[in-house]
Design goal:
By secondary structure, the protein is mainly β. The chain has a single domain, classed as Immunoglobulin-like. The protein is built from one helix and nine strands; from the N terminus they run ββββββαβββ. The strands form two sheets. Strands 1, 2, 5, 8 and 9 form a five-stranded mixed sheet that branches. A four-stranded antiparallel sheet has the order 4-3-6-7. The longest helix has 4 residues. InterPro entries: Hydroxyisourate_hydrolase, Thyroxine_BS, Transthyretin/HIU_hydrolase_d, Transthyretin/HIU_hydrolase_sf. One of its GO terms (biological process) is purine nucleobase metabolic process. Homotetramer.
């Protein structure tokens, strides 16, 4: 079974985004696991071993970006199709974000 980690970088500030709440959900919205990014903006392991299916990662960014954040939350939908480790980084700025499958 696959494993999952994530990393949030604040590209506008040029540093990791510490203290971001992150939740792993199924497609029905059921919370499967929750964590908060560490001082390096990382969650080393989330959700234990993952089955082959589609998941959501929800990042609550309002606390980091401020009360007037354009994106108070970011949700990334991804599929686990194999038993490898999955790393889903989030690059965050006040008016944009991007993500990719990392290693």
């Amino acid at each position: 079974m696959a494993t999952l980690s994530t990393h949030v970088l604040d590209t506008a500030a040029g540093r990791p985004a510490a203290g971001i709440p992150v939740a792993l959900l199924d497609l029905d919205g059921e919370v499967l696991a929750e964590a908060t990014t560490d001082d390096d903006g990382r969650v080393a392991s989330l959700g234990g071993r993952l089955e082959t299916r589609t998941y959501r990662l929800r990042f609550v960014t309002a606390g980091h970006l401020g009360e007037h954040a354009f994106f108070p939350e970011v949700e990334v939908v991804f599929r686990v199709l194999d038993d490898r480790h999955h790393h889903v980084p989030l690059l965050l700025s006040p008016y944009g974000y991007s993500t990719y499958r990392g290693s």
